[in-house]
What does this fold into?
Amino acid sequence: MRNAHFADAYLYEGVTTVMVPLAPDDAMIDGETTVFRPASGPSLVTSTPISGYSTNGDIAHAHPWTAHRTEDPRASIATLKTEIANAAAQGSQVVAVDQDVWPDQLDAIVAEAHRLGLAVSAQPAFTTYPYAAHAGVDVFARNDRYTLAATRAQDFLAYSDDPVGPGSRPAVRAVCQADALGARIDDFAAQLSGTRTALMPILSMEATADDVGGPNPWSLRSSIFVTPGDLDNPVDPKTGARPYLEQHPADRARLQACARSKQSIDRRLHAGGAIYVAGTSVPSYGVMPGGGLHEELRRLGEIGLTPREALAAATSNAADALRLSDRGRIEAGRRADLVVLSADPRVDIGAVDAIREVLIEGRRVDRDALMASAKKAQRSHH
It folds into this structure.
């Protein structure tokens, strides 16, 4: 949510709630250090990072983490509880557990966050994914992270020792060979069953960055609302060239094969009963606000979700996973955030593009005015 253009693009495409991960200044973790809050636009849900060591949510910059893990002082349980209370007081509705959080810390974080009504997302490394699910984590984000749960123990340990450096390569290579992980994938799916932990794969990120299944984002109608300068590493509007692939020409085939391998892991996890939540990586790799979510729903269909399940991933499942009891379903007492379509998305998920009306808290959004303003701004820009 970087500017008013993002807000307009989201509204035009019927995206009524946007979750924005926060990040401390100069942090290595993903997120925004500042958030644009539009006067009129989607409801914003913010996510605050929680580290097992720092008090600002940042993680270690050294490689590997051996000395950091064994010598640096850990954050106390009392400190973690204070951080969660501060996040709640500042309006965050989600805490994001960093890779350097230990099992006992995770237990305390989940208990305190849930006590305060906050959801917990996680991308653990010092803690295993099955443990985190059992502890009550609500969401595992990014399939390039949670698929690591299906790797051999020694590969995950190597990842734990250097999660943001070269030590993670054995595990990363393993998930690129999904055919060899069948039983472990099924085990992970079984470990997720019986918990309420949902998976947010963010398929649009790799689909766009690695050119596997996604269109040129500039072909989406929401692209009229933004300029390349609004996005990170945007796809070339004219040629469709993907900057990440262009920077790694010798690895193109391998990167694309690896992305498809992770999609196949998700396909098997879904078949095993995993719950899915829709999320995008806007503005990473040029994923578009608004239209990027519609593409994510199509990608979810490619890993086996029915149109109805894909809709739930963007509505009721998302509300449940983020503990947002005021939205996500059409019920008395909830926000009247509604999207009226002229085609049935339960038959074809592509019908999410056939928008007739968008309402935010019961108030109609003037989509025609948004589009007219975007076209005027585009003419002015050119």
Observations:
- The chain has 16 helices and ten strands.
